[in-house]
Amino acid sequence: MPKSTEVLPECTQLMDPGKLRPFLEAFTSRLLNLGHTRLTVSGYEASARHFGQWLQSTKIAITEIDDDVVRRFAQHRCRCPGSRQADRLSAKYVNRARRFIGFLVEYGAVTPSTHELPGVDLHEVQIVAFQTWLRRHRGISERTVRRHGRMVMRLLAGLVLIQSCTMPVSFGR
């Protein structure tokens, strides 16, 4: 069964990302182009929509997003519309929102904070550029482009693991 690129309808009806909508659409497109499954993308989308909804309800402008705003989002007692009403948000859920905020920083919509946001993969831009090159110059199917993107991501993860496991060898005295 092929992966669907549709957004889960219940997610789009419950939370309104407001002014973050065009960024959210670009973010989900990027995740899909990187080869993430529909389920993974819908998880990131739900978290980003929730963050946008919360920004609207607290009347915080996009340009005001910083580490303190993210901390307040993570700690808010959620009574936002939809089925996610809880006293605390999970760390995984908040990290998904942080990754979206990293995307906003990369896009230039948010000023980078002094601390690097966790969960932002610095290689994603290069992988997307590689996939664009594959489409333009190799003429391969979208399925193959996504597969190549996933393969590069796995290779990078393996290389990072190998690099962290190697110990420098010293010779001499």
Task: Sum this structure up briefly.
The chain has helices spanning 9-14, 21-33, 38-57, 67-75, 91-107, 124-138, 142-165. It has 173 residues and is an all-alpha fold.
Please characterize this protein's 3D structure.
By secondary structure, the protein is mainly alpha-helical. The protein is built from seven helices and no strands. It has helices at 9-14, 21-33, 38-57, 67-75, 91-107, 124-138, 142-165. The longest helix has 24 residues, at 142-165.
**Biggest β-sheet, characterized?**
none
Give the SSE order as H and E letters.
Answer: HHHHHHH
Quaternary structure type = single chain
Strand-residue proportion: under 5%
| Average predicted local confidence, pLDDT | 78
Distance between the termini: 62 Å
Shape: elongated
Number of helices: 7
Helix content: 55-70%
Report the count of strand segments.
0
